[in-house]
Design goal:
The protein has 166 residues and is of the alpha+beta class. It is 34% helix and 25% strand. It has one domain: Beta-Lactamase (2-Layer Sandwich), CATH 3.30.450.40.
């Protein structure tokens, strides 16, 4: 068992640097994608304040299918191009949504969610899935979170064996 402590940081970039170091320790020597994504979602849940869901949707058969997560039960299938997650997958760009109720076609898996950030996971130019984090707070996520979480996905891509995911 690896010890991970929740530490208060003055700046978000310090939090994300710490998070990436801990992520590397968790997944750096493990080949199993399911174990690694499970630990990654648990790490996000432990270290990021003011969130109510953190996890992954994986690209399978032209849909996003629910993967490892922390939070309330979630939508199982999301069509590419639908909702925040489907839009991130279709456009292959991060979606930083300050108010999910203002997002056209938002899919409400948890009515308490008010803001969301979704980062596409692209490896060798192939869509693997998305990292999805929801918050019950409006305007919870900003550009610093986006940069930090995109680096988190980069760390995932560096160590993950995506070959066995499908």
């Amino acid at each position: 068992m690896k010890q991970i402590d929740k530490i208060a940081f003055e700046k978000k970039d310090q939090l994300y640097k710490y998070m990436n170091i801990k992520l590397t320790g968790l997944i750096g020597s493990e080949d199993d994608w399911l174990a690694n994504l499970s630990n990654a979602s648990a790490l996000l849940w432990l270290l990021i304040d003011e969130i109510n869901w953190a996890g992954f949707y994986l690209h399978k058969k032209d849909k996003l299918i629910l993967g490892p997560f922390q939070g309330k039960p979630a939508c199982v299938n999301i069509e590419i191009g639908k909702g925040v997650c489907g839009t991130a997958a279709a456009t292959r760009t991060t979606q930083l949504v300050k108010d999910v109720h203002a997002f056209p076609g938002h899919i409400a898996c948890d009515g308490a969610s008010k803001s969301e950030i979704v980062i596409p996971i692209i490896h060798n130019d192939e869509l693997i899935g998305v990292l999805d984090i929801d918050s019950p707070t409006l305007n919870r996520f900003d550009v610093e979170d986006q940069i930090g979480l995109e680096k988190f996905v980069t760390t995932l891509n560096k160590y993950m064996n995506w070959e066995d995911i499908n």
